[in-house]
Amino acid sequence: MKKLTGPFTQILPLTGMPQKGALQDEQLHIIPNGGALVEDGRILAVGDFEKLRRQNPDAGIEEITGPQVLLPGFIDCHTHICFGGNRAKDYAMRIAGKTYLEIAQSGGGIWDTVTQTRAATEAELTSWLVECANRHLAEGVTTIEVKSGYGLSLAEELKQLRAIKAASLKTKAKLVPTCLAAHMVPRDFAGSQGEYLEYVLNELLPVIKQENLAGRVDIFIEKSAFDAERAFAYLSDAKQMGFDITVHADQFTAGGSKVAVETGALSADHLEASGEAEIKLLANSNTVAVTLPGASLGLGMQYAPARKLLDAGACLAIASDWNPGSAPMGDLLMQVAVMSAAEKLTTAEVLAGLTYRAAAALKITNRGILAPGMFADMQAYPCADYREILYYQGKMKPVNVWTADFNDF
Ligand code: NIG
Ligand code: FE
């Protein structure tokens, strides 16, 4: 059954815009008094509401009252929301002046969450994840990438990935799973960095493939985690096995983005420490540069050079990095609004980074713009001018969120 929703004061379909580089707000195509015609969760047309009504007399009407601006649902292409416990203790230490690495070395950090996640049952992880996903969904985020990486053993990584799969059946948000078993060498692993990666490649990844638990593999390249050389070998092998790859790159020290580009990763995420060389490398590649303002806010450190990346010609996506350690807030819109003021991003760049450019980071082609054939994942804000959305710095939330009934598994 066809359904026509509208009239919206403005529709921003985000179509016809380039995949890479800087954008001006004038490039946003704005449809005034617009309507969205949907059938079976797919968009049939967006355009003038009255015209669509005349052309489709058989369509059911979902009437919108008051001013509303319609956008594609946001795509959060980097989260770690499958975890147990919290790290408020770390946070208190951090704001009092301890560094991320000092906290990790004194027993906090990622390993603390691994311990708390291992103590949780699969059902408990599933239910927390559904809660986070639904919170995100209510805030307009309709597709959410979710990483493992707090299990760090065969059984515990599988528990996390199975929880993600189970959660995807219990929320209307679409979940895209990623294996981040290479988050750090687990403290209880009797072997070297290289041996741990061998273990993941030989023992874990084949099971993930077999059970269809994830199609993506991630690694944290950093002094406290994995070095560039071993990461290169690991990612190359994972790719050989048929996984898409992505990298936690240049968070504290530069180096990871080079590995990401050289291995043909879909994305290089973080980039707070990227310099001119890394910016150039990313801009000349097909690897999406993902900035994670929530981690900069959580750690009290500089943002990734988003403006420079865009000016150099990179494809820039923006994600929340929602995790219990470095990015506990989980409010994607608030994070981008705050970052865009500091980094001087246009509204068009922000909206592209939250939608179709984020879709590219996940190799997803069926959402992120409002065009015929796309999933009808949409959200509407209670305002008459799209510029109010960033103006209120994330405080204004969507009043309507629609999702196509589909999941990515
Ligand atoms: O993306 N940088 C590594 N991993 C996460 C943080 C995970 C944690 O602290 O629990 C991140 O920021
Ligand atoms: Fe992360």
Key terms for this structure?
single chain; about 400 residues; alpha/beta; Urease, subunit C, domain 1; TIM Barrel; 2 domains; eight-stranded parallel sheet; seven-stranded mixed sheet; 16 helices; about 20% strand; binds N-(iminomethyl)-L-glutamic acid; binds fe (iii) ion; Imidazolonepropionase; iron; hydrolase; Amidohydro-rel
Describe the structure.
- The chain is of the alpha/beta class.
- The protein folds into 2 domains: 3-71 and 366-402, Urease, subunit C, domain 1; 75-361, Alpha-Beta Barrel (TIM Barrel).
- It is 37% helix and 20% strand.
- The protein contains 16 helices and 15 strands.
- The protein has helices at 49-55, 88-95, 100-105, 110-118, 122-138, 154-168, 193-210, 228-240, 256-262, 276-283, 293-299, 306-312, 332-343, 347-354, 356-361, 388-391, and strands at residues 3-11, 31-39, 42-48, 60-63, 69-72, 74-76, 141-147, 174-182, 216-220, 244-249, 267-270, 288-291, 316-318, 378-381, 400-402.
- It has an 8-stranded parallel β-sheet. Strands 1, 2, 3, 4, 5, 14 and 15 form a 7-stranded mixed β-sheet that branches.
- N-(iminomethyl)-L-glutamic acid is lined by residues 80, 109-110, 113, 220, 248, 251, 295, 321, 323-326.
- N-(iminomethyl)-L-glutamic acid binds next to helix 4.
- Residues 69-380 form the Amidohydrolase-related domain.
- One of its GO terms (molecular function) is imidazolonepropionase activity.
- Pathway: Amino-acid degradation.
